[in-house]
């Protein structure tokens, strides 16, 4: 995913420095060139050899160190970097950078970097909330630095408060968002629906389906990584929504209809990937004396067809994509939906095909447009999401 990309990790004097070894490992597994810069104080918490072993690059500390085989002076490294992340970032280093002080290899390189710079503060919560530190953080924001908010938890001195470095996966997601994909959807607004709606029968039971929300989340994440402003309207899902997308949580088909239609006019692309329950139950009882399951009658009323409504009210230039899950005559039935729902594209898949359907991590999709059909091989839902977006961009 990150092959050909260079990430500069700046590590400062904080007990949380040990986490960055795992972040470096995660980046190298994505085929990224990882260059680590450490302050002298950071070497008291973790040995530079750890980073050198993981990254296969010399860990730089001294600005005037010439004990390496090729030129990696601060200007050369700054030109090479695609993104810089300083994590953990101490109050000392935040203050230096905010005020233009460059007195070691880390701060000197950061000053010379024209790429995006991400700062993840980690320190005692009282220090974090010191007005001077907060002023310096805001100063960095003003100059275009991105700040990752510390999390709340137990700190090194056993205090509970904010000031803790986020986990390595969170830090990785910030880097991936910045450099993994070309921002070809920059300036676009994308709405995606995901998950399984639930229709209440009584206080205990409901009607639903087997949708996990994985395909919808993959689409939302792919659009976000490519620069779009993404809103995810999600019903019940087996996974967490992706980072960096706005989420609107709903329960029933009516909830989803109301949420989607309220947002639809603002969107450039709408992708309905949610499996919406087709019927809403209305419960009645024969017995006038006691309500029991034996006396229960359930009448099913069709829910509002969200995709058809969106198609009938589609704005000029707006792109609408729906999903079609079929057991028989997949292509024929999906092609009919393309017309009847007034969509620009239908993504068809079969419940009976191995590697496709609900719950799994892979999918087999046929993209149907007025121009014809394009069948994708079995692939991860993340990869399929990018293929779908590639196709939507051509419409």
What's this model, at a glance?
The protein has 395 residues and is an alpha/beta fold.
Offer a few descriptive terms.
395 residues, alpha/beta, Rossmann fold, 2 domains, 13 helices, 32% helix, 25% strand
Describe the model.
The chain is α/β, with parallel strands linked by helices and 395 residues long. It folds into two domains: 6-179, Rossmann fold (3-Layer(aba) Sandwich); 189-393, 3-Layer(aba) Sandwich (Rossmann fold), CATH 3.40.50. The chain has 13 helices and 21 strands. α1 (18-29) runs parallel beside α2, α3 (74-80) packs across α5 and α4 (91-98) packs across α7 (131-142). It starts with 5 loop residues before the first strand and ends with a helix. The model has no long low-confidence stretch (mean pLDDT 91).
List strands and helices in order, with pairings.
Layout: E1 6-11, H1 18-29, E2 33-38, H2 48-55, H3 74-80, E3 83-89, H4 91-98, H5 105-112, E4 116-121, H6 125-128, H7 131-142, E5 146-147, E6 151-154, E7 160-164, H8 168-179, E8 189-194, E9 199-200, E10 206-207, H9 214-225, E11 229-234, E12 246-249, H10 253-263, E13 269-272, E14 279-285, E15 296-302, H11 306-312, E16 319-326, H12 330-340, E17 345-350, E18 362-363, E19 366-369, E20 372-375, E21 379-380, H13 381-393
Parallel strand pairs: 1-2, 1-3, 3-4, 4-5, 8-11, 8-13, 11-12, 13-16, 16-17
Antiparallel strand pairs: 6-7, 9-10, 14-15, 17-19, 18-21, 19-20
């Amino acid at each position: 995913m990150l092959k050909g990309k260079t990430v500069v990790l700046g590590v400062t004097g904080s007990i949380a420095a040990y986490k960055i070894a795992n972040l470096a490992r995660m980046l190298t597994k994505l085929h990224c060139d990882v260059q680590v810069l450490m302050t002298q104080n950071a070497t008291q918490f973790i040995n530079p050899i750890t980073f050198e072993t993981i990254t296969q690059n010399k860990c730089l500390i001294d600005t005037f160190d010439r004990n390496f085989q090729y030129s990696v002076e601060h200007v050369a490294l700054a030109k090479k970097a695609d993104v810089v992340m300083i994590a953990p970032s101490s109050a000392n280093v935040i203050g230096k950078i905010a005020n233009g002080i460059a007195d070691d290899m880390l701060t000197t390189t950061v000053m010379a970097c024209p790429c995006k710079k991400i700062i993840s503060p980690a320190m005692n919560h009282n220090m974090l909330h010191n007005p001077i530190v907060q002023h310096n953080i805001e100063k960095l924001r003003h100059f275009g630095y991105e700040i990752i908010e510390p999390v709340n938890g137990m700190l090194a001195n056993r205090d509970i408060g904010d000031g803790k470095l986020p986990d390595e996966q969170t830090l990785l997601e910030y880097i991936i968002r910045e450099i993994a994909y070309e921002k070809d959807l920059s300036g676009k607004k994308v709405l995606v629906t995901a998950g399984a709606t639930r229709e209440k029968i009584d206080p205990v039971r409901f009607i639903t389906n087997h949708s996990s929300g994985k395909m919808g989340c993959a689409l939302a994440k792919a659009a976000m990584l490519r620069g779009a402003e993404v809103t995810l309207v999600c019903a019940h899902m087996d996974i967490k929504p992706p980072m960096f997308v706005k989420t609107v949580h709903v329960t029933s088909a009516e909830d989803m209809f109301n949420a989607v239609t309220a947002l639809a006019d603002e969107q450039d692309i709408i992708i309905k990937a949610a499996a919406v329950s087709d019927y809403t139950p209305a419960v009645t009882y024969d017995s006038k004396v006691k309500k029991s399951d034996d006396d229960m009658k359930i009448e099913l009323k069709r829910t509002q067809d969200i995709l058809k409504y969106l198609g009938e009210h589609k704005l000029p230039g707006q792109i609408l994509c729906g999903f079609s899950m079929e057991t028989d005559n997949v292509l024929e039935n999906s092609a009919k939906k393309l017309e009847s729902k007034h969509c620009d594209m239908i993504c068809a898949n079969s419940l009976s095909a191995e590697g496709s359907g609900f719950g799994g991590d892979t999918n087999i999709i046929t993209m149907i447009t007025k121009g014809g059909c394009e069948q994708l091989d079995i692939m991860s839902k993340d990869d399929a999401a990018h293929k779908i977006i590639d196709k939507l961009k051509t419409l």
